[in-house]
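G., the chain you wanted modeled:
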Amino acid sequence: MAFSDQCISCYWYMGNTGRALVCFAYPKGIPHEIFHGTTDHRTPQRGDHGVQWQENPDYIAILTEVMER
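Predicted structure as tokens:
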């Protein structure tokens, strides 16, 4: 299984509800192809309610801090 940080690095990502991984674009569940990075969500995708990937500065800051250790 491929790993992608596309969703967890996104400003709109909300996390795991216990039933699905969700975000503002996909409040009922992020499609497999987007979560696993086989589809780039920087462009509009069917059902995304007009919300696409946007860099989360908090994620970048945490990642930078961890990488500097």
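The beta strands are 13-16, 21-23.

Shout if anything looks off.
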